[in-house]
Design brief:
The chain is an alpha+beta fold and 145 residues long. The protein has five helices and six strands. It has helices spanning 50-53, 59-62, 66-69, 108-125, 137-144; strands at residues 5-12, 15-21, 42-45, 79-82, 85-92, 98-102. Strands 3-4-5-6 form a four-stranded antiparallel sheet.
Length: 145
Amino acid sequence: MQMPFVSSMAAAGAGLSYKFFATPRADGVDEAPVAAPAEPWAALLPALDPAPMGWTARDWYLGSHRARLFDRSGNIGPTVWWDGRIVGGWAQRADGEIALALLEDRGADAAAAITAEAQRLGDWIGAMRITPRFRTPLERELCEA
């Protein structure tokens, strides 16, 4: 099954409401709508990930963090996501530690979930080291700390 995509979004009060639909099948018939996640979720995406790179209008999920997360050529570095928004960045230090910088306070539950995701990523990467080819201001800052 292909990954679902967001087909429509609408402003709803202070946040956004989402309608999730499955990818259309080859015969042109849409599959049943996909339910939104029941719980908020955390994710650490790599540099140049197509989710943040693929949109010109990014403010609805990027906020005011563009200057710290993108290089001068418009390439995004590693990002921290919380429940559909970019809330920070991450980097892997020379010793293998996954360093985080949260640029928004989303509460204790978000911080705990993001920290757990960083630990999971570090365990999965193991001894391998990742250095993005296109370094962003925040990624450089985290590696030098």
